[in-house]
Specification:
Strand content: 5-15%
Number of strands: 7
Order of helices and strands: EHEHEHEHEHEHHHE
Shape: globular
Helix content: 40-55%
Number of helices: 8
Radius of gyration: 17 Å
CATH architecture: 3-Layer(aba) Sandwich
CATH superfamily: NAD(P)-binding Rossmann-like Domain
Number of domains: 1
Distance between the termini: 41 Å
Structural class: alpha/beta
């Protein structure tokens, strides 16, 4: 008997939302490298930034899907396509998210509504649609992308922080209800990571210096740091973990 389980997802089917760039792209490629066939949830299906070819080059199947997670009809259509093409779904990574920056006194109703529609509503209803398949299978794993911003206040990011805190608690709620179906639900909460979304902020030396002053390990993360955590939670090695949020923050929240 082995004393450890493998950190791979060989033969699994995984959906990653917001998969065209940044963390979503890294997670999709990591899961493909570890043996999964991939469904890509893309806000614009024709703008995949080459990820379809990269996954095919790994010898894995890939299904690009039009999937703006703030639109219920696109979620439903995408899941109908997944059911027809793959017949099942084993892993979901709810990565799609937006973060319009503004001081509290300047936040507009549109900023507020748009952020909740993608970050919270999208995560909820993609998970709900995935659950319909996973409950029938009596197995599955859902991984939500939260943020350290759900645990510490970031000035100018009040609505984003609120949604990411909500995702961490929503993760517990799904885990509590769906454990009886052998479905695990966890979250990953990254610190600042080098992605297209943080490029402009981190290009400012004062901003970068501030971030590094908060990260105990003294470095800004790479997308693979988050993808590694997602891969672990998606693998058999994490089969007894559910309802938790794994902070990948370099120690920021220890301060």
């Amino acid at each position: 008997m082995k004393n450890s389980d493998d950190v791979n997802v060989q033969g699994k089917i995984a959906l990653v939302t917001g998969a065209a760039r940044g963390l979503g792209r890294a997670c999709a490629l990591a899961l493909a490298e570890a043996g999964a066939d991939i469904a890509l949830g893309l806000r614009e299906v024709n703008a995949d930034n080459g990820i379809v070819k990269e996954i095919e080059a790994l010898g894995r199947k890939v299904l690009p899907l039009q999937m703006d997670v703030s639109k219920m009809e696109e979620i439903h259509t995408a899941f109908d396509t997944i059911k027809e093409y793959y017949k099942r779904l084993d892993i979901v990574v709810n990565n799609a998210g937006i973060a319009p920056e503004n001081l509290i006194e300047k936040v507009t109703e549109k900023d507020f509504d748009d952020t909740l529609a993608v970050n919270l509503k999208g995560t909820f209803f993609v998970s709900q649609a995935a659950g319909a398949l996973m409950i029938k299978q009596q197995s599955g794993t859902i991984i939500n992308i939260s943020s350290q911003a759900g645990f510490v206040a970031l000035p100018g990011e009040s609505v984003y922080c609120m949604t990411k805190a909500g995702i961490a608690h929503l993760t517990k709620c799904f885990a509590a209800e769906w454990g009886k179906y052998n479905i695990t639900v966890n979250a990953v909460a990254p610190t600042f990571i080098y992605t297209p979304g943080t490029e402009e902020y981190l290009a400012n030396e004062e901003s970068k210096k501030h971030v590094l002053s908060k990260i105990v390990l003294g470095r800004i993360g790479e997308p693979k740091d988050v993808a590694n955590a997602v891969l672990f939670l998606a693998s058999p090695a994490a089969s007894l973990i559910t309802g938790t949020t794994l902070l990948v923050d370099g120690g920021w929240t220890t301060l």
